[in-house]
């Protein structure tokens, strides 16, 4: 059993040594997918899978720090996930609250909640906002926790925010239509002021975004990993980064 472990350790170090610091992504988005299927394969409950997935987050953030990533966005709960059974959803929300609280308590990372908090139970929303506030002055890795998040809803919220802001200044509908530009949406997104994700990773073998950072990912590179999220390893992360670094990024040019 020791030999495969040793070989993977050597392989990890070889990949890490081959990475060019100048080619590392600034912002990595991760779709944490496969918790329930991981649990089902082991005959465990969905809650067990979600907990194992939550336990993996700190590892990912450490790996990201090691290569100089500045921002990580974790999709922890989609708006579609809110339609799951009350029993599973209640357990998942408690796990998410605890996970975000632990991230904040570490003092290592600045936590920002992105999503529609009005769709969440009040107690959950309050707990997430409290964790965010506790890390306001932390200068470490910026960690967006996408909870109650949907890309289409984010864009709709951005447009509403733009309209309300300018309507309060007395602008007419015709003036708003004349002035409206794509940059106005960017200025009102949940992630405004942050670099767009350079690399988006999705685990579990699914090859779709599912609504993750729809606006921000226009020029992102995508990497789809077969491993379920609880089984995601440092070597898988390094492979994703290596794949990203090897690509020619034209950014539409």
From TrEMBL:
So which cofactors does this thing need?
Mg(2+)
Q: Does the keyword Repeat apply?
A: no
Task: Cite the record's note on assembly.
Answer: Homodimer.
The protein's name in its UniProt record: Isoprenyl transferase
- List the Gene Ontology MF annotations in alphabetical order: ditrans,polycis-polyprenyl diphosphate synthase [(2E,6E)-farnesyl diphosphate specific] activity; magnesium ion binding; Z-farnesyl diphosphate synthase activity
Similarity section: Belongs to the UPP synthase family. Z-FPP synthase subfamily.
Listed GO CC annotations = plasma membrane
What GO terms describe the biological role, i.e. biological process, of this protein? Answer: polyprenol biosynthetic process
């Amino acid at each position: 059993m020791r030999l495969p472990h040793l070989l993977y350790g050597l392989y990890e170090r070889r990949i890490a040594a081959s990475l060019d610091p100048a080619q590392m992504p600034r912002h990595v988005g991760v779709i944490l997918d496969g918790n329930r299927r991981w649990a089902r394969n082991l005959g465990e409950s969905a809650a067990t899978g979600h907990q194992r997935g939550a336990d993996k987050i700190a590892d990912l953030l450490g790996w990201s720090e090691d290569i100089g990533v500045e921002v990580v966005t974790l999709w922890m709960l989609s708006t579609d996930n809110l339609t799951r059974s009350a029993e599973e959803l209640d357990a998942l929300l408690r796990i998410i609250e605890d996970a975000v609280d632990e991230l904040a308590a570490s003092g290592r990372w600045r936590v920002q909640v992105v999503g529609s908090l009005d769709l969440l139970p009040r107690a959950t929303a309050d707990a997430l906002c409290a964790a965010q506030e506790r890390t306001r002055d932390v200068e470490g890795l910026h960690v967006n926790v996408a909870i109650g998040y949907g890309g289409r809803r984010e864009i709709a919220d951005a447009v509403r925010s733009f309209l309300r802001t300018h309507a309060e200044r007395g602008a007419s509908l015709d003036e708003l239509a004349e002035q409206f530009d794509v940059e106005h949406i960017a200025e009102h997104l949940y992630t405004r002021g942050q670099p767009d994700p350079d690399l988006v990773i999705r685990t579990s073998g699914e090859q779709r975004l599912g609504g993750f950072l729809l606006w921000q990912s226009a020029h992102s590179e995508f990497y789809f990993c077969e491993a379920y999220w609880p089984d995601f390893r440092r070597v898988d992360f390094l492979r994703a980064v290596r794949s990203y670094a090897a690509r020619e990024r034209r950014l539409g040019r």
